[in-house]
């Protein structure tokens, strides 16, 4: 039978509770440290005068088809032949005269190398468009349409085959379930090759001028014109014009919300001069962005239609995230090992496009036409780079599958501006106002237009702030050193009733006092060592003095007479005996008797 006293039980319980409190405190502190780099989001709304964003406007058709026909003669001819062969569609022969520069002198030969194919029942055989002959399909087959969509009869599969110019056995067949998609993709492929060979100055003349695109302009209730627009050439959209680009050093702002105080423009689309094979929709593309941001029209542009008034209301939001160690974003992009080819502020899209273009130049030896040209590189074309199509498609496939490493290298920007758009569309002009408005706009167009305007050639655009509330979203550190210490003190007070004074006393007892004891002990040892060292030096100095002055009797130096003990402590001579004080003659102390003979009584005692 085990008997436990109440005192022991009380002490055991106290120890268990103390250990439990310590464990809880340590666990809470560990959790606080693990969640130290966490952020809280704050939203601030301010009503103030807002800067107006840059508005970039492009015609969906990049170049006037009437001016481009001479460069696209062979390509259009092959495309019409494909329509006639596969679908029985035929047109009259083109009366367009060939260009004297003969841009497509090698185009026909290359069309024969990369013709449109009609795949028959996935049997690895296909019919060529140009010759009508059947060929054996080598290499992999890539279906460009979604596998979810029903592709229909396999006899309707149309595509084209790309092969490595250095190795004919390396081929890839790209098929499409829709003939429209196949013809457009094939046409764009050859179209980019042709445009890459035309100088920039000529392409700017082939595209739309500001006078061609803009009919009327109003901003904040005041009239504006082409001087408020800045032109820049986009590879896929031709001449684009940016309102309020900020290149002049002035950024326009607005102090009133509503459609009447924003940007209002009427655009001339000229649908009759569209390229029928390159674009299949009519209208314009716009993008609202910051002045330091590059407008990626082809990626996130908003399309507006003709014969309609498109109203775009905006809400402005500015966001900022914390950089490392709170999130994996970059402030300026300087820490990203990818060259910025766009000469604009860093963004994720700029990084991805620049990374792909760099990989294109390294792998294929030339640059892709739709992106800016790196230093020392040139755009791909048939004449200098006959293998660029196959290389481009293979590289793009790796990029989509995130095998190039661009998605892993590129990061989001920590700060960015965003305009949330709300779009509404109304019929424009109305039936009752159509006649007089078209007449007036035709008269405003003047001598540059030889026909009456049609409402399908016009588009009305309005861009404005719905309100002047600026929303600022920011991340702030959820924990600081002060908050961490406060939470730690709260845990100590909750579980151990411990205050700051208690913590200071604990630190004083366990650290300061212990340190002072250790330092005092070390000081005593050092002091003792120093004393011994000083005594040793004194002894050595005394010995050296004796050697210099000769040996002398130390007993005679002292004022007191030497004793027997001090005499024995005198140093011994090394070579010759030193003169010493003779010891006392102890024989003088012997008692001399006055009797010469021993007395008889003493003799008897000795005998006994």
Give me the count of strands: 21
The number of distinct structural domains comes to 3
Taken as a percent bin, the fraction of beta residues is 15-25%
In the predicted model, the low-confidence regions spanning at least 5 consecutive residues are 94-106, 145-154
SSE class: alpha+beta
Distance between the termini: 86 Å
In CATH, what is the homologous superfamily of the largest domain?
Acid-sensing ion channels like domains
Q: What is the CATH fold-level name of the largest domain?
A: Acid-sensing ion channels like fold
Radius of gyration: 50 Å
CATH architecture identity of the largest domain? Sandwich
Residue-averaged pLDDT = 79
Helix content: 25-40%
Tell me, briefly, the overall form: elongated
Largest sheet: 8 strands, mixed
> What top-tier CATH class of the largest domain fits best?
Mainly Beta
**Number of separate helices:** 17
List its traits.
608 residues; alpha+beta; Helix Hairpins; Acid-sensing ion channels like fold; 8-stranded mixed β-sheet; 6-stranded mixed β-sheet; 17 helices; 21 strands; 21% strand; elongated
Describe the structure.
The chain is an alpha+beta fold. It has 3 domains: 8-36 and 479-515, Helix Hairpins; 50-62 and 208-475, Acid-sensing ion channels like fold (Sandwich), CATH 2.60.470; 72-90 and 110-196, no CATH class. Helices cover 36% and strands 21% of the residues. The strands form 4 sheets. Strands 1, 10, 11, 15, 18, 19, 20 and 21 form an 8-stranded mixed β-sheet that branches. A hairpin with a 2-residue loop joins strand 8 and strand 9 (167-176). Helix 1 (6-34) packs antiparallel against helix 13 and helix 9 runs antiparallel to helix 10 (388-400). The two termini are 86 Å apart.
